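Narrative progress, year one. The postdoctoral researcher (J.K.) led the effort to move from monomer predictions toward full complexes, under supervision of the PI. The following entry was the first complex the group processed end to end, covering 918 residues in total.
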Amino acid sequence: MKKKSTALRLRGVTKSFAGLTALDSLDLDVKPGELVALLGPSGCGKTTALRIVAGLEKADSGKVLVRGEDITELPAHKRHMGMVFQQYSLFPNLTAEENAAFGLRMQGVGGAERKARALELLDLVGLSALAKRYPHEMSGGQQQRVALARALAVEPEVLLLDEPLSALDAKVRTSLREEIRRLQLELGTTTIFVTHDQEEAMAISDRVAVMSRGKIEQIDTPDVLYSNPASSFVASFVGNMNRIPAQFDGKHAHLLGGKAKVSNTDSAAPTSVVALVRPENIRLFKPAHNAKAVADATVLNRSFLGPVSQVTARTADGHVVSALLPTADTGDLHAGDAVAVELLAKQIMIEGSNA
Amino acid sequence: MAKPLSNTVDKGAANRGALVSDFTRQLVPILPLLVLIVVFLIWPIVNVAIMAFEDNYGNFTFDNFVVASQGVYAQAFGNSISLGIYSALLASIPGAVFAYIIESRGSEFLKRIINSATSVLANSGGVPLAFMFIAAFGAEGSATVLLKAIGLDIYAGGFTLFSYWGLVLVYCFFQIPIMVLVFSPAVQALRREWTEAARSLGASKWQYWRHVGFPLLFPSFSASFLLLFASAFSAYATARAMTVGTIALVPLMIGTLIDGNVIVDQFNLGKALAIGMVLVTALAMVPYLLIQRRVARWQK
Amino acid sequence: MKRLGFKLPSAGLFIAVLLAGVFVLLPLGSASEYSFRTPALGPGTYGWDNYAWFVSQPDFGTFITLSLLLAAVAAGITLLVLVPTVVWLNLRGQKLRPLMEFLTLLPLVIPVVALAIGAQTSLPVELQSNQYSLSFFYFVLALPYTYRTLDIGIRAIPLKTLSEAARSLGASQIKVIALVLAPVVRGAVIASVFLTIALSLGEFTLTSLLHWQTFTTWVTVISQSNILGAIALSVFTIVAAFALLLVVGLVSIRTKRRQVTEE
Ligand SMILES: Nc1ncnc2c1ncn2[C@@H]1O[C@H](COP(=O)(O)OP(=O)(O)OP(=O)(O)O)[C@@H](O)[C@H]1O
Ligand SMILES: [Mg+2]
């Protein structure tokens, strides 16, 4: 049961602020060289968890272990973590190079070696040309790269990233996240990446921990999370989800003129429920061969996304559903067209209707 | 040949015209403020500067400055300058520490109260302040009596409130609040991320201050220090109320010259003293400007 | 380790506030103690006599009113002249900012006594003989503080975007400043008005050297006739100014909150 090597281990970490529980007995294991994303809605405790690992916040109870060693009581500056914040964390009075060298300077590394290492890291993040710039002379994306270089320069036990991309525009965000992943793989740095952007989390992590109200709901690889969510919360948080009213008979949910087996029957089941259906599990088509169980709908909109297109439609009983279809199959679907809706999924999740 | 040339000239002139009109267009909305500053500050002081070089008959002379830099006047400049320096030294550090503690830990409500209090105290002075200190720390003052009762006799070492050091003490009452008032914005500008980034990069608290905190605050600190110096150097009301002419200070001398209480041979001596004060303050700005130049690159 | 559910103020904060309290209250409290003495009724007796004395002075009300009026005019100048100017400088007048920064620092370099000589010798008599000229001087003397407070506060707001948005919706230049920008810059505006009022109420040097009588100079004169009364008056001026600014400050918190909840 006990794994031989765990880079970082959190056990029963609990933290509350003025009576409000931010972390509720949180457990987390991160393997060496792994990138784990902490994903969850605002206020679920992601930052708090990260800050406790960094030693910037003290847990009320629980333990933090690094490579089996208990560091719960160790002050932040002795923990050897590299942290990257949302923004504005570079020291304004130091150049990019001096910022990157800061951690080494604190360790008493000599000037020449420090400089060489700082430049090496700035080079890794593609900024060696800006070594002499001060933070305010750089763009937001460049500043975040320097912050990354600074955190990596000390070869941290764990690299802690708290929404490092959220202050950047969409384009820079995607390119920088790929760069973070590339560097992380290259250097083999164990990393925790906090984000509330599920696409970002899915795109770059080895595993994603979905958090809700101070707890981890599920932690697994992106594909398992997507295809096999442990709860309706995870299901609706990861990827897009249609929420369609359905009738539940104790075993199956009936919706869109069809039915599907319900996988989460743990909760006491009311008869009126909300079914969670992924857009790719819904098919919209011109009702020519009306053989299967289908529902009627009217096309509202079609947006081209490349090889696939997203089509939204309003069903006869007034619900809007959204479907992902191969673009080739959507050529004859125009706004206002009458279409048939088919439920493709064999198995779905439900929620209580007023949840 | 002539044509293209005139063309370029025209273009240049047009450009310059556009620039000028751009500048004037920017200028028009701020004219009211400019007029007020010129009428109520610059025009008077320029006149003082001119008249400082005139003898009693309006002829050019340096005599006023010669007299102003000798004897009792030189002594007064010395006193005023050292008063400014000591007062700034004594007030700047406690004020800065207090501003830091309040800004970093205080609640919004506490900050409000302290802001109101410092605004009032920074502007206190003159007779009310003098009487307050006499009532408190005079030989018969109730704080003196109280402190004596707990074994602290402030008059044991020959201290009096009406001395040079008494004045320095009284000045603290408005100088420290001034420091808090002008230094707080600098402290506010320190971001929590900097402390935390430094900590997580292995810096001890002291190392954070040494490499990040102090360098960031230093320009504002030096500016505030300069301000405290200027404030004590040129303070008039409190000095007048406290010293009754026992200590030679330049502002008091200028005051008596204006009031005509003292007759001197040169009518314009007071103006030379005033310009001397402006020069001292301007000179005091030199180290500050040097610091500013050094940090200009990383400061926005 | 069990933690308390609420945060105790840290020791540093506690000590700082305590020391500040001693710093202010030792002189102020001692002076208050003095001010309540009533030697006429025998030693060790206390009462409001000294306060009654200065309140009953015929000029007390006159000069308080005058000082408040002069402060209000100075505050008005700040609102009408300085605020629009700083907004404008941040919006369009970038080129003129260094000039303004320099000019508004001058009152710190030029001692008030020096300004007083200049005012006396070079301003036209009509101006000198109008007591409201004092308000203009107070306004100018407060500039180093008010200009910076406003500039820092206004710079933090994306004025350009806001004003362009408003103009694209068809608002005129003046409307933009009055309706859109003024409410947003309110915090900085209140702070600068604050500073102007505090300076105006306390100004003595220029006022007395130009031979005007306001509350502060009146205090100086009247103090010579009754020591205990003068001490009472000193306590009163400091406490009253503090109370005044505190009320203004708290009212501004209140309105700010209401604004937030309304939004
Ligand atoms: N210093 C603090 N004092 C009081 N409450 C706090 C403090 N820090 C966090 N909290 C509360 O703890 C909870 C968790 O906060 P946390 O910052 O960890 O959330 P988060 O998941 O990072 O959210 P976000 O995505 O918005 O950054 C929130 O309800 C927050 O209000
Ligand atoms: Mg967060």
